[in-house]
Structure formats: C-alpha cells, structure tokens
Write a structure and sequence with these properties.
Blueprint lengths: L2 H16 L2 H5 L3 H13 L2 H6 L2 H10 L12 E8 L2 E7 L5 E11 L2 E5 L1 H17 L4 H13 L4 H4 L6
Antiparallel strand pairs: 1-2, 2-3, 3-4
Helix pairs in contact: 1-3, 1-5, 3-7
Length: 162
C-alpha cells in the first residue's frame, strides 16, 4: 500500500478519535462510514496506539477491507508518468471498464494507491441511498444501525476522545 494511502488511514484514525458529528457529516460517505466503523470496532486507547499500517491490517482482519478484492482485476493499458502510473481496468473479455487504478513508485517499488476508490465508493453509496429512497444521511444511519445496533448510533457519532 502506498505511503499516501497510509497517511489517509492515519487521518481517518485521527478523525475517529477527535471529529465532532458536524465535522464528520461534512466528509464523503465512504470516509464517514470508515470513521464510524473505527469508532465501533476500537476503543480510544487501542486506536490511539495503532500506526496507520496497524489500522489497515486490523481493517483487513475485521473484514472492513477485502484482502483479496483486487485478486481478479485485469489490467489493460498502463500509462507511466515519472513515479506515478495509471492502469486501465478491463473486463474478462479485454474491454475497457472506464476505471483506472493508480500506482506510485516508492523506494523503487510500485505501490497501489486505493484512495481514489474511496471516492468511487461515495458514488456507489449515493446511488444505493437513492435506490432505497433515502438521503445519504439516512443511508449512513441505517447502515450503522444494521451493523452495530440503533442503540449504539448516537455514541458512534461522538469522537472517541472527548
């Protein structure tokens, strides 16, 4: 995972620890769900002690990030520009999917940068909310209530460190 993505998870960890309900509500839907999930899955002292790599590893272990999500992704054309690259994702029959993955060269190794996928997640959540006749806020609340119970919802909206 790229250093950029590790710093993103460090930021998400800090948001889980400190952001108010109003601050969290201004985040994209994917980031908001990650912040609330970190609050649901970890206590403040446990989360505070974690490095960004620890947060990513714990997220994979708890199934918040799919370890093998990219195992079957097929790449088409690759465009390299210095220490960054974009690779076109193709379908099984070689057709362009309209999605490109980003990579960054760090210390001589190419590392995948999944951060842009977070923004695609926002679009998917917005579409899912619309399909269910919900606002994004209602969709987030329903998702959290389903995962963690409606009784925990108010607490998840509060920072872990007060």
């Amino acid at each position: 995972m790229s250093n950029k993505m590790l710093s993103t998870y460090l930021e998400l960890k800090e948001l889980a620890l400190t952001s108010s309900e109003e601050q969290t509500a201004r985040l994209g839907t994917t980031w908001r769900l990650v912040v609330y999930t970190l609050r649901a899955e970890f206590g403040a002292s446990e989360l505070r002690a974690m490095t960004s790599a620890d947060v990513v590893a714990a997220a994979v272990e708890k199934g918040l990030i799919s370890e093998g999500a990219l195992d079957r992704v097929l790449l088409g054309s690759i465009e390299v520009n210095g220490d960054t690259a974009k690779a076109e994702v193709t379908t099984a029959d070689g057709q362009a999917s309209g999605l490109a993955l980003e990579f960054t060269k760090e210390f001589g190794l190419w590392k995948f940068n999944p951060e842009p996928l977070l923004y695609l997640g926002d679009q998917a959540f917005e579409y899912a909310a619309e399909q269910q006749g919900l606002t994004v806020d209602q969709f987030v609340d329903r998702t959290l209530s389903t995962l963690y119970g409606a009784d925990r919802l108010p607490g998840l909206k509060q920072p872990l460190e007060r």
